[in-house]
Amino acid sequence: MPPSIDTQLSSLAAIVCYGVALVLLSRRISHETFHPGPFAWTGIGLGMVMHFGAIWSAISQPTGLDLELINALNVMLLVMTLFVTMASARLPVAILLLALLPLDILALVWRLLSNADASTFKPVDTGTLPHVIVSMIAGSVLLLAFLQALFLRGVEKHLKARTRTNWLRHVPALESMESLLFAAIWAGLGLFVLGILSGFLYLDDMFAQRLVHHTILLSAAALGYVILLVGRYQFGWRGTTASRWVLGATALLVLGYFGSKFVLEVLLGNGT
Q: What residue numbers bound the domain in which 147 lies?
């Protein structure tokens, strides 16, 4: 069943707002300083409001909340965009919006093109809702750390190659970027571990055959982040080494969450 008319209209409005904001942000790259102007912030703000409306319309069903793959992805991207927008008031992270806004647009387009039958989804049990919310916020923060790690690697490669690009002059010092990266990892890992522990409290089938790979991959991702933090503070890991561990742990996180949902919901046709 295609998305409702409310979802379609809100999605289209969000796509337009994000698109306009992205164009305005891109034009700022050539300026001496990268500060999104009031029109760009307005576009982002309106886009987030419309994005929320679109996703809430898709999630809120008469039988419960539909947090299957495409809706979960949109929720997490919206949370990531909100976090970056709020953090930009005090931290030099607005340039991450150049990566986030296209992802928002692609996720909304996927939502528009999706023909998933909303009548066949398995609603989220209200008893597991705290676990789901904590896990999704944790995933959003850790995916932001992933974007920061990619950004950090890109900056290091350009600096080593001594290439000059417009966006490079707008990035903060590497030390500041690393501090922000590890702050995000600490916050995300704390929520992530809380999400895993709450899963054992709220779910009675964490090691059921259909979920055992999900549990193992997410636990391995958590272990990867822990090893990274130990390496950071015991052995001084930074730069490329730290980025590789972030990318590896996040790959396990994505496989464990989105990969599992894709297999269960798309390939096997079962809700989670």
A: 5-267
Distances (CA, A) of 26 to 9, 12, 35, 177: 26, 21, 11, 21
Residue 272 lies in a domain: no
Question: What amino acid is encoded at 31 in this protein?
Answer: H
Q: What is the token pair recorded at 177?
A: 């970027």
What is the distance between the alpha carbons of residues 12 and 45, in angstroms, rounded to a whole number?
Answer: 15
CA distances from 97 to 20, 87, 245 (A): 13, 11, 23
In a domain, 91, yes or no: yes
Total number of domains in the chain: 1
Return d(Cα 74, Cα 235) in angstroms, integer.
37
**Residue 150 scores a pLDDT above 70:** yes
| Each residue's pLDDT tens digit, 21-70 | 999 998 877 665 667 889 999 999 999 999 999 999 888 877 778 888 88
In angstroms, the Cα distances linking 50 to 15, 34, 64, 103, 109 are 9, 25, 21, 15, 13
Q: What's the start-to-end Cα distance of the chain, in Å?
A: 19
Q: Lowest-pLDDT range, 34-48, 131-145, 204-218, 229-243?
A: 204-218
